[in-house]
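Hey, weird one. I pasted the Imidazole glycerol phosphate synthase subunit HisH sequence into the form twice and got a warning about non-standard characters only the second time. First submission, copied straight from the form history:
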Amino acid sequence: MIVIVDYDTGNTRSLSKAFEKIRLETVISADPALILQAKGIVLPGVGAFPKAMTSLEERGLIEPLLAAVAQGTPLLGICLGMQLLFDTSFEHGETKGLGLIPGQVLPFPKENQLRIPHMGWNQLQVNHTQPLTEAVVDQYVYYVHSYYVDCAPEFILATSDYGVAVPAIVRRDHVYGMQFHPEKSGEVGQALLKAFKKVVEA
């Protein structure tokens, strides 16, 4: 069973439907006990980092998420959910994240003069070929975000160019993140969700 974490800032229904298409059972839940029992966890997110962290804290979900990861449960963060995996965000001030992957969340440099948010289709450049990235070399995925992650290259599986090399897929051990929306990225997104399904089933 995969638990899609419900903390009132994510597009949980569309993610649930995307997993249905690849025949993976999911439950949308804010129950800490279910999170701790899950075979895999998906942390979605749409909106602002500070509000998301506040919502996780108010619902008592931070400790069970960290405990689940500590016991080896695979976790996938999507869009804002990926950003929450890192140490700190500078969106609307400075906010502490979950600290599961070293790094920080930054605004796009103003000197790039590119439209913000980064919205629409962009190409993936694979940095490290792993089972999660084998099927997506040079493929396009769908983004909607105004901040990006700055982290060490060792954690970056794929990037997209948007004035800076935007970490698109990240990984540290059994913690994964996708800055784009796989549920909106057609067959490429389905291939990535299937790859995460294999991680969970393994």
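That's the output from the first submission. The warning seems to come from a hidden character in my clipboard, not from the data itself. The longest helix spans residues 186-201.
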